[in-house]
Design a protein that fits this description.
The protein is of the alpha+beta class and 257 residues long. Helix content is 42%, strand content 13%. It has ten helices and eight strands. The strands form two sheets. It has a four-stranded mixed sheet. It has a four-stranded antiparallel sheet with strand order 5-6-7-8, with no helix packed on it. A hairpin with a 2-residue loop joins strand 5 and strand 6. The longest helix is centred in the N-terminal third of the chain and has 14 residues. Pfam families: BTB. InterPro entries: BTB-POZ/Galectin-3-binding (IPR051481), BTB/POZ_dom (IPR000210), SKP1/BTB/POZ_sf (IPR011333).
Amino acid sequence: MAAHEDTQKHKIDDNIMTETFSESISEDYKKLYETKERYDTIITVGKEPNIERIYAHSLILCTRSSYFHRALSDEWAEKKEGCFTLSKPNISTSTFKTILKFLYCGIVELRTQEDEIIELLVAVDELLIQKLNDIIQKFLIKNSCKFLQQSPVKMIHFIIHSKQFNELKEAYLETICRDPKNSTVSRVNHNNSNSAIGCDNSHGPSFGEGPDLHVLDGSRSWKYQAKSYPKILNVDSFMISFYEVFQIVSNITKKSA
């Protein structure tokens, strides 16, 4: 009798079928993202005049982001009319919607516009969404040459002054050293300070030691003096934090009469 039961059980187990419907689940979450049905969280994002209220579901936010898990906890959360309320004025509407779509649907579209992707990376880092953070950094590293060609000053200024993206810094520094595009690395001091550019209340911006270029505040007047700075032969001896980046937008030479 026992043997018969074991045989019968084995036959039943053989008839069990397991299937995964991940695509169907993804579509359901996408529908929830689009309809906002039964939302319980209202997030105000952006600054005037581009402020917008975003409607979401706390369960999804808390599951996908450790920041929201903390922010929507009983200890920190604020509620109004039965909904959690948050304010993120430092994140634009378009950036937050991109993040929200990733949280719900696992979908992100990255483009090589430096302003958009830098803002997205900073926001994702703040919201502690590590998976998307890794994706964006890999995209930036993969397209480092393109971003450096499009906007070298902005991109390098960002990675130098961002303390948390070490892998990104190293990758961009390696790209610069490998393919400098006629760049010359030199050391420039401004009045023995740590910066090459200076500015205070008594005058406009000044560049270099001396200074080389001095723009008088509140006027079109400026003065300069010719100076040169030694070329750095071993750029590997520099830490990336030593760098300030400048770009010549126009080079005009006037001949004396």
